[in-house]
Design a protein that fits this description.
Strand 1 and strand 2 form a beta hairpin. Helices cover 81% and strands 4% of the residues. Strands 1-2 form a two-stranded antiparallel sheet. Strands 3-4 form a two-stranded antiparallel ribbon. The protein has a single domain, classed as Arp2/3 complex 21 kDa subunit ARPC3 (Orthogonal Bundle). With 197 residues, it is mostly helical.
Length: 197
């Protein structure tokens, strides 16, 4: 196995490949919308990367996801309200979604890789969404209250959960749960290949 100063070359190549996939999927996903926000198709490669390369690999892929969200203009409405708050929220939600899914997989994978992959696939969109919601309350609440009233919601909380997150979160969560068997197969393939070398 090729290692340079303790860094596994194979992991770096896999991270580079998954980084490219994250970038492409995020730019493509920016065109798929249900409600005001695009669907995050990139959570799957973040989960796979976190499981195959570790917690820091997941964090890296989450950071790339956040940077592409900012570069694609997908966070444009929030950037006009509070640029610093937007950058903090977008980057934090990606990084911590990758970290959390990697940590969950690492903790559970010794007992049951299928269960670990499903759990990591659930944790990623949950953490991503939780950071988004927290950021909404910390940085954007007055503006979101106005948007909610204009859209006919009774309060800002119902607007955030039903008007902004609702279907997007359920779609992302369902996609991760449905594709968990594919994640497991990828993980098993990677681990079996490492054992043979």
């Amino acid at each position: 196995m090729n290692k340079v100063k303790g860094i596994n070359t194979r992991k770096l190549v896999l991270l580079a490949l998954l980084t490219g996939i994250v970038i492409v999927l995020q730019f493509l996903g920016a065109f798929i919308r249900f409600g005001p926000f695009s669907i995050s198709l990139v959570l799957m490669p973040i989960v796979v990367g976190a499981a195959l390369t570790g917690v820091y690999g997941g964090a890296w892929l989450g950071l790339v996801f956040g940077l592409v969200v900012l570069a694609s203009g997908d966070a444009g409405a929030f950037l006009m309200i509070d640029p610093v708050g937007t950058i903090i929220v977008v980057l934090a939600k990606g990084v911590f979604a990758g970290l959390a899914s990697g940590a969950v997989y690492k903790i559970l994978s010794d007992g049951n890789r299928t269960g670990a992959a499903i759990a990591a696939g659930v944790v990623c969109p949950v953490v991503n969404t939780c950071f988004f919601v927290a950021g909404c309350y910390v940085f954007f609440l007055p503006t979101l209250a106005e948007w909610g009233m204009a859209a006919g919601f009774i309060n800002v909380t119902s607007f955030i959960f039903l008007g902004m997150i609702g279907f997007n979160f359920l779609f992302e969560l369902g996609l991760n749960i449905v594709l968990s068997p594919a994640i497991v197969r990828l993980i098993q393939y990677g681990q079996d290949k490492r054992r043979r070398e």
